[in-house]
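User: Can you predict the 3D structure of Amidohydrolase family protein? Sequence below.
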Amino acid sequence: MKIKKKSKYIIDAHTHLGYWPTLNTSLNTLLTSMKNHNIDFSIVSFDGSEFKEPNRFNKLIPQLSASKKLLSIVKENKSLLPLIWIRPHTEKNSQELETFLEKHRDFFYGLKFHPYTSRLRISDPRLAPYLNIARKFNYPILVHTALDKYSQIKYLCEVCSLYKDINFIAAHAILESDHLETIELLKKYSNLYIDTAWVNISFIKNLKEENLMDRVLFGTDNPIDGDKTLNEEIYLDYFKNKIRLNKIDYEKLMYLNAIKVYKMDLDKLKN
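Assistant: Sure. Here are the predicted structure tokens for Amidohydrolase family protein:
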């Protein structure tokens, strides 16, 4: 059943592709679920986990190989807007990646870093070459945040203060928390944003009260739980605008902020 769209556009700013258990499976699931929920564009990264994880199908793929594979996929699927998932713990080929981006920069929209699956804090010096790539190409960086020892948002804020010309999106607004810590951090760091992957829509009322509706992007982690991901109540509440945001705030949340942060030309993408 298709979900009735309440926003002019919907951009899902946090999605994935990977071998879960196959690449075709994750791609088909992503595209089908986008269609069923009237999602116009998804910002997508190719699983770049650096270590095998228990109870996961993740297949370890070098970052350059994954980027080339993702490039070929998005050329055939214009609704998918790619991020490059970086692997700074186990790989030392940031220069090769930079050369690749010099040739294909117009296809990509930013970088993705997952501290937990890389077992590396974003404040680690090994991230410096990639932060410089983001600076060079004027890319934002989507960063997984959670309560584990690698993903705490305090490390991301350290980097925000050092790289004020780069925009950072704190994925999940700290996973499995009440997300309230992000409120004061958003006020303090003008280059920090959050996304709504596994964030209950009730939290958005806090952002509204603090005049922070310009700093949040709708995102879902789709299709991390397969074809049921977007049918979870936590996301259906967003599609229905359960908290009854006014039109401008709702559209900021669902697509306008993503356009701003990822520097998207919507007219060009629609053609």
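The chain is about 40% helix and 15% strand. The two ends are 27 Å apart (CA to CA).
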